[in-house]
Request: fold
Amino acid sequence: MAWIYLFIAGLMEIVWAMGLKSTNGWTRLWPSVITVTAMIVSFYFLSMALKTLPIGTAYAVWTGIGAVGTVVFGMLFLGEPRDLLRLGFVLAIVVGIVGLKATA
Reply:
């Protein structure tokens, strides 16, 4: 169950990272509300996962899911670069996440 909690926490990190851009410096109400809510949900599920997972593993996987998801979202929907080198580094993060899960 801890890995499911961690996955949810990572998905919520993607939501709040993308939402943070939409808040326009916390000047837009609803994007700000959504962003703060996603932050709270993300931290809650991370804390639930930490009941059984090692902190180093959980934190690295959580940030990895958030980083990869945010980069992919940016490439797909915000017109961010999709060059081969960038994709290679995203793949390296994914390999690290999988490796940490396999050794936890």
